[in-house]
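ok so I'm stuck.
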Amino acid sequence: MRKLVFDIETKNSFQEVGKNDPTALDISLLVVYDYTTNAYTTYDEGNFRDLWKLLEDTDLLIGYNSDYFDVPLLNKYYPGDLTTISSLDLLKEIRESLGRSVRLDAVAEATLGENKSGNGLEAIEWWRNGEIKKIEKYCRDDVRITKDIYEYALEHKSLKCKELLDVREFPVDTSAWDAQEKNTMNYTLGI
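replied:
not stuck anymore, here's the structure
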């Protein structure tokens, strides 16, 4: 099974586009961790063709808030339909267990003992300032944290989140995570 962990950064914010619709935003870059190659790769519009080839050979996309944000936004650029790839949205899994959403930073701090290295609004400012390396480092850090949270949950069948001054551990049903169906993507590119 080919699994990818990914995260996207944008050039603009919901406030700037005037609606809470990820497809109204523009991608600055995204980072992908590929379990098959054990490598992180950065993509921008200039090399999306390489990304499409990778995605078309992927069985499971793993992200944080990815079903709501990342997949629809990336799908805006893709000439086919990325929703045909099986996905695991860790935020969605947490919401099912806790009954509410929890920020990635709160899960990372409690579960892994580390914090995120920035936030999406800073990444937008870095884009405007041409500080692409800062965006890439931040996005790669988020992908690594998401990967580590995924692996922790698989091993421990639980995660932790910080609530005010307390840390709360909660169960996560991971039984079907690695039993995703084979990718049924329609290949739309002339490769």
